[in-house]
Amino acid sequence: MKNFVPNFFILIKEISKKINNLFFHNICNICGKPNENFICENCQKRIKKFEKYKIINSKTLERQILNFYQTKSYDEFQSNYNSKIYFNNLFYCFEYKGLIRKLLLKYKFSGASYFCHFFANVILNNKKINEILKFYDIMIPVPMDKIKKLKRGYNQTELIANIIKKEKKLTVKADAIKKIKPTKTQSKLNFFERQENIREAFFIENKEAIKNKNIVLFDDIYTTGATVNEISKILKQVGAKKILVLVIAKD
Question: Which pTM does this prediction carry?
């Protein structure tokens, strides 16, 4: 009986793969029209509108956040916000809007795990990202807590990272960090609540594997940066040298 739940989820995944192979062959996986490629030429043009491939340093991000929230409520900002950003740079591929937002939400919440190949290729085929990745030793996908991962059936960042691992010499350590505290869904919280929600939610398993390493922290969406900043803080505490936050899209 103990093995029933894991075996059940393995069976569901295998059935899902077969369904995907049956229904998503020779059609565009965005518009659904007949096409030999995974995504048709027309939809590729639609996606291109949201491309950015932009890098921002931590100081610029701090200034952007400070300027935005000071105009909103300076007193609340001063009393609630930890202004320190622990990672060095943020690199994002797309703006989180329109079709890209729709695809990422489908990928995360609608069981469309097959989109991991599309998002991995976005990273692998971009020269700018590839040049930057040469200077890093380890990629760590942002972890999920066990219950959420079991319900979803996969960690969306881990699926993409594992495809990148096969193509690059970059080491992927999906188990380097554990999420030890269940948290509320970040998208339902405001800026200050997100910081508090994610505080002390992560634990580093192997500190020696992190020490003196340049690390790519990989996530799907960057909104306020609360999650990646909290992880970056503990990575720096155990001796990480440099941290690049790489995301598919920035809100």
Answer: 0.84
